Target: Phosphoinositide phospholipase C
Amino acid sequence: MSCLHKRLKKTKSEEEAFLEKARRIAHENGKRLGLEGDADLKFLLVGGELLKIRSSSWKRNRFFKLQEDCKTMWYESHKTFKKKQTFSTDDIESVRKGRQSEGLNKHTDPSVEEMCFSIIFKGSKKNLDLMAANGTEAKQWVSGLDKIIHNMRNLSHQQKSEHWIINCMRKADKNADNKMTLKELKHFLRQVNVEVDDTYAAEIFKKCDTSNSGTLEGEEIKHFYNLLTDREEVGVIYGNYAQTEGQMSSKDLLNFLLTEQREKVSMEDALKLIEKYEVDGTAKQNERMSKDGFLMYLHREEGSIFNPAHKQVYQDMHQPLNHYYISSSHNTYLMEDQLKGPSSTEAYIKALMKSCRCVELDCWDGANGEPVIYHGYTLTSKVLFRDAIKAINAYAFKTSDYPVILSLENHCSVDQQKLMAHHLISILGEALLTKPVGNTMPSDFPSPEGLKGKFLIKGKRLNKLDAALNNNNITIEEGTVSEEDEAADCKENGHKSKSKKSKIKLAKALSDIVVYCKSVHFSSFEHAKDSQVFYEMSSFKESKAFNLAVNSGTAYIHHNIDKLSRIYPAGSRTDSSNYNPVPMWNAGCQIVALNFQTPSKEMHINQGPWLKRKTFHVMVISAQQLPKVNKDKDKHKSIVDPLVRVEIYGVPADNASKETHYIDNNGFNPMWNEKFQFNIHVAELALLRFVVEDYDSTSQNDLIGQYCLPLSSVQSGYRHVPLLTKRGDVICSAGLFVHLMLVDAQ
Model:
């Protein structure tokens, strides 16, 4: 007897009812996204055939379709165990029209440019390279996906939460009858990351089942939703200040802003918040804020931990370049480890889209006279130098107009160096800085403001800068210079026998485009002070830099007052791990290069920044809608047991870490109400990091989410903290609720 049962085929009327319900759900979700009746959204919901491209020989037709939640993309697969695959639009970083990915550029003909597009995912998930039947359809796919991604990201926290919870309810409604049984309610609670015992689940169910029908429907489901999403801790805060007939008057709100949030605001500001966030028309007319309006305010940028005034550049950007920390990447071309991982132009794009301002190019002789980039003496794959420069040129100024430094580690022959110079000049054009700003020999760096939209080359130079300005430039086509310090280390780690002080030949064409970032060997601080000019800079391996910071800290700081210093990870970090950049910043080092491809605590800190003693008070109140972890692990329960760790990074005396207790089986709305106090000696250099982990008594805790920012950008009072994945992507709907206060130490 067979144990396989054929699924019963739906009758025509059942199929029509099913399709009608799907259309209704899609309509509701489209309306929630602000895309009601949108032609591109309708196109995605119908779906269509696309050509999936992996290589020149692997090209397959696949059917793609947006599901009714207007968030999940479904596509067919011919894999044995994965006939249908899905991905969320939350996982998409961007959608690129045309042959703008490495794969499409390599495996398709330029004639199909208009038909191609790529879905670029966050993290390490591979790009999806696709080709539509024609340019019009490709445009609709790109336009539709862009609209969904843009509108979803611009929903308020409350709208995102509602969208997610309602769709979880629909998934729990197994028989699709718009009713919820006790069993379905328990399934729903597990979906939203809450584990409750049967008695408590039955109590909630009984409280909401006012009709005593044994199921929840209509207003009963709405009542259950309200019970589930009620923010008790926010209600207490609101109640303390709502002194006008149970609501907050503009005067009450102003009192809250001045007393709790410690903001310098007026009655006019309070009225603006009511106008902006109050959802009840009558309350708004009476210049009052309801609890719903108050919650809306707390979840928007005015209620965020991060000062919205700091979202734009708020520092003085007219100082010399070496007065700034410069976000820097090491071996930027690598997607994974340092020994056998792939090299890709996508790695440059990802780093630049994270606002990296200094990227590294390890250049070697390639086939057919074309220089390539890869990690020498290893098995990493290669990418054409020309293709890397094209990608850098296309994405360098997408997130910032401030200058980008191209750090060249040059291992090429003179002929291929000349071709490198040609590619840099022809591809980067006017954006490439080839001579000093102004007509006279500079005595200091120009400012980031004065270098907007410019590329600076860091590398070896055959002569001093003043020789070029005084027309005393060398006329020979090449010369000899000492090898880059990092290149020598690379050889040392590759067990090559050459001396660390070996010489290389340098093409004049490549030498001439090095202006403000001439690489020189570091001998000592005394030698640098007496012999080096301001634009001559050195690179330091992390161990040497840490040693100098500890034993010659004052001299290191003075060195960095008028020169640039670059720090790079030790060659022994073959797994692309990272070192802590904060001690290097404390010593004034500007270009502290990290492995951007590796999600780590050090990268979280690196993306954070950018003296009077203080006392910093932190109260961790609650969290909302934490995601599940261990989905792929063989664990009996997947509900998280969250704890929160608060970390301070800065000068050694400020480094500290404190954590809450863990909450059993509740990732939806855990509450701690735990207070911590930190003594801060140098607030200007301090970084604040929140880490949320899933507690495990038998193994290492799993990361749920994290957030890092400069202490100088923290807003006091009751604030919501967004949470990011280990790769730095926002976790939709998830967050912490905290109270913060930075005061002068007594």
User: Anything to note?
Assistant: The chain is about 30% helix and 25% strand. Residues 1-8, 494-499 have pLDDT under 50 and may be disordered. The longest strand covers residues 730-744.
